[in-house]
Model the fold of this input.
Amino acid sequence: MQWSRLFIPTLREDPADAEVISHKLLVRAGYIRQLAAGVYSYLFLAQRAFNKIIRIVREEMDAIGAQEMLLPALHPAELWQESGRWEVMGDDMFRLKDRGDRLLCLGMTHEEVMTAIARGELRSYKQLPQIWYQIQTKFRDEPRPRSGLIRVRQFIMKDSYSFDLDPAGLDVAYQKHYRAYCRIFQRCGLKFVAVEAHSGTMGGSQSHEFMVRAEAGEDWVVLCPQCGYAANLEKAISVPAPPLAEDPPGDFDPEPFATPGVRTIAEVAEFTGLPETSQIKSLVMVAEGSPVLVLLRGDHQLSETKLSEALGGRVIRPAHPDEMREWLGADAGSLGPVGVRNMTILADLALRGRRNMICGANRDGYHLRHVTPEEDFTASWHDLRQVAPGDRCTHCGAALDMGRAIEVGHIFKLGYKYSDSMGLRVTGPKGEEITPIMGSYGIGIERILCSAVELYADQDGMVLPVSIAPFEVVVTPVNNSDPEQMSAARSLYESAKAAGLDALLDDRDERPGVKFKDADLIGIPYRITVGKKLASGKVEIFERRSRQSTEVEPARAVEQLRQRIEEDYRNLQPQD
RNA sequence: CGGGGCGUGGCUCAGCCUGGUUAGAGCGCCUGGUUCGGGACCAGGAGGUCGGUGGUUCAAAUCCACUCGCCCCGACCA
Done:
């Protein structure tokens, strides 16, 4: 294609409302334009990149025997009421009414629709297993869209669903997806890690997220550099750093002491001269109406995910100040477990075996010293805390690494949640009724592009892997008014196309600086520069990633470039 | 939903505090010319109901109220 004919609206300055790199660059490079909060138009370059990503996704999904479909984005409310998620999804779901006042919603995911098809059509165990997928637009009314394409309200998702006769079958489907996802992200040129994850409102037992480390990411992952343990922060486990001070020995009774105006853990530490690790942090939470007292070591943070799981998956929220006062007789800052009878007490395992600690006295302005778990109060023990910097790996003892990441894919073992609630049954070999077991698997198409931008961008703009860049090479004549250069550039462009390369000819009547800057900005992996060295029989092959140029004879340029690009693709090829 | 910030030609911004002729700049765009290896130069030109509504005032981009939109932090998040 000829650049002079294309719509690639690049900008010289960063857009004012962008903060993260991928947002700035995708707008500046003319890939996207914003329509509303969390809603973007994908212009020519973005669509080209997405098509390349989608093609890779399709090839790998087809390779595991998944069948592509396309389901509606508009769903009747009844379907979601059946699974119980009409309520669960809350404000995240776009809801609307048709002219007959019937309730509808825009699909945020498709378990319900897929299960409805399955229950309508699958009759016999002989039809299983099945893997169905689609690449389609999803709608989620995010409370806070942000970071350009990283968190949006309308996005393209590859979602697939597996139906199996038994858990062993589900394991197979899950493994197939796991491998296919690894291959997809490798072929897209991403550095990623698969982490253990929490299944959230999807329900189900096992789940992995595919994460790309990036500061712009919204998730936190915990990684062990030694044994490879990897988990989402909300699920990660660790060996806590030891307390900073040893517990005083001896068998004492709790003893109140006045702590006027001392409320936070840090203030208590300052006041007592003892570190935060010597304190018991008491948090009042409400689990679907009933109060729960949660105890943690002073320096630890509660993982609400773990707490919710410990409470059997109940929805939890922090208690309001007046509730705490009513239930415990004191304000936050002076709360503790001693003498508490009117609520469940859950304690984090890091407190087990500790002695003579400090906690609130349930009386404003007072704390207790010499509080020993299991002697002065009883609680049920759970892992409730978030992994903290400095923690060690439970498997190998190495120091854990923590960092932000972008979630590009997520796979779930759903179990029977949807087949049960929506009545999906097939007949077994002995005429018995079998409830199929399901899995669901998602990839965020836009996030693959965002992640690549975040990972590889430099000062000059985006640097995209050949497999997902909108073009593989741009042929740039330096001076349009030089007929030799122009015709050489045209013929290089034609032979690049003939050699099967995805090429672009920058035939714009612009000065060379403008062409170079634009080509760098939009991230095309290679550039053939046709300039004054043409007179001495040379053109340049410029590699965007390394910024290295090599001079070659025009006649050999395309073949050499073709080989380098082939090499790039080989390096992106998964080895397994 | 709580906190903060911002809405002025296509883009990035100034002007607003302290109201006062035809609302500015740089970039981009159009025409002509000179140029051509890292965002050229000269000359001329087009383009803005100052987010919206209401109010105060002789007079509002500027002050007040309401409202809409967007961004950031937090809560939330398959």
Observations:
- Chain A has a mean pLDDT of 94.
- The CA atoms of residues 416 and 573 of chain A lie 36 Å apart.
